[in-house]
Amino acid sequence: MRIGLAGVGRIGAFHAETLRDLDVVDEVVVADIFADAARAVADNLDVGYAPDVEALLASGIDGFVITTATPAHAPLLRRSLELGIPTFCEKPVAATLDDTIELTRLAAAAVTPVHVGFQRRFDTGYRNAKAAVESGELGFIHTIRAATHDQSPPHVGYIPTSGGIFRDCNVHDFDAVRFVTGREVETVYATGANKGAPFFAEARDVDTAAAVLTLDDGTLVLVSSTRYNGGGHDVRMEVHGEKGAVAVGLDDSFAFRSAEEGADFPHGPPKWSFMERFLPAYRAELTAFAGVARGDTPSPCTVADALAAFRVAEACELSRREGRVVRLEEVEDL
C-alpha cells in the first residue's frame, strides 16, 4: 500500500514516521507547499518525496493523509474526493461551518471513504469508558466532566487561524462525548477568560474556557480547557452514573499533585504534549485508516461526525460571545 501525505509540519512529520513504520504500508510519499521542507522530512525519514501536492495525488497513491495547516484542509479534501482517493484528514475538515457542511454533503454523496482525525476514539481509556456506558454497568449516566488542558500555549502566530479554543481544543472533547455516550448535544452555555499572553485577546480568543452541555437524554457535561496547565498536558474524562463511575486519563501521568497529607499518587512523570499523551492512539488511528483505504472497514470517524462536533464548538463560541444558553438547533446543519 502506497500512502501520500500532504503537510510536513510537526503533526505531519509525526504521522509520516508512524505510517512508515506500519507493516501494512509499503511506501510513504510526502509533499508540502514548501518543497524544501518536504525534501528534508523525506530524507530524514527515508520516505518518498513529491515536488507538490498535485504531483503526489497523480502518483498512484492508495490513500491520502492531510496534515497541512487548516486553511488547506477543505480544498485538498475536495480534490481527493474528486479523484476518488481514500483520505485521512486531521481535524478540522474546514475552517468554517459553511465549508464543513459542504464537505459533509460531498462526502455523503461520494463512494470514497474519508476518515477524520479524532484520535481519542482510538485511546484505550476512552474506548473502555464507551464500553462501560454501553454495557450498562454504570447504570444511567447523569454527569460527565471533560478536560483539555495544554501544558503551555502554542506559538503566537497559531492563534489567529486556530478557530478559537472551543473549535481548536474542546472540539476533541465534544467528539469524545458523542463517541462515549452515543448521545447528541441539545444546549450549551459557555464562557471564557484571559489571564495569560495578550495575543489571545487580540485575536478575540480566550486562553481558558468552560461550558455546560445538556445532552438529548438530560445528561449534564462540564467541559473545561486552558492553554496554561503548568503541571503537564492534562486530557481527561469522568463518566458518572447511577451505579458507578469511570475516569479516562487518571493514571500515574496525571498532571496534578495531591493536596492530601500522606497521599503519594500520582507517581509521574506527567505528559507534556498531546503527541506524547496520545502516541498509541495515533498509531492505532493510522492503522485503522490503512484498513479504510484498503476497503476492509468503514470510516470510524466520518465528515458527518466532524460536523456534529464542529456545530457544538460553534454553539459554544456563540454562547461565549452573547452570554446566553444556545440551542444546537440555532446552528446551521445539513
Keywords:
334 residues; alpha/beta; Rossmann fold; Dihydrodipicolinate Reductase, domain 2; 2 domains; seven-stranded mixed β-sheet; six-stranded parallel β-sheet; 11 helices; 13 strands; 21% strand
Can you describe this structure in just a few lines?
The protein is α/β, with parallel strands linked by helices.
Please tell me how large the radius of gyration is.
20 Å
Instruction: Report the principal-axis shape.
Output: globular
Please count the beta strands (DSSP E, at least 2 residues each): 13
CATH class of the largest domain: Alpha Beta
Q: Please, what is the CATH homologous superfamily of the largest domain? A: Dihydrodipicolinate Reductase, domain 2
Largest sheet: 7 strands, mixed
Residues in β-strands, percent:
15-25%
User: What is the string of SSEs from the N terminus onward?
Assistant: EHEHEHEHEHEHEHEHEEEEHHHE
Question: What's the domain count?
Answer: 2
Determine the CATH topology of the largest domain: Dihydrodipicolinate Reductase, domain 2
Strand order of the largest sheet: 12-11-7-10-9-8-13
Instruction: Determine the mean pLDDT.
Output: 96
Unreliable spans = none
Figure out the total of helices: 11
The secondary-structure class comes to alpha/beta
By CATH, the architecture of the largest domain is named: 2-Layer Sandwich
- Termini separation: 34 Å
**Helix proportion of residues, in percent?**
25-40%
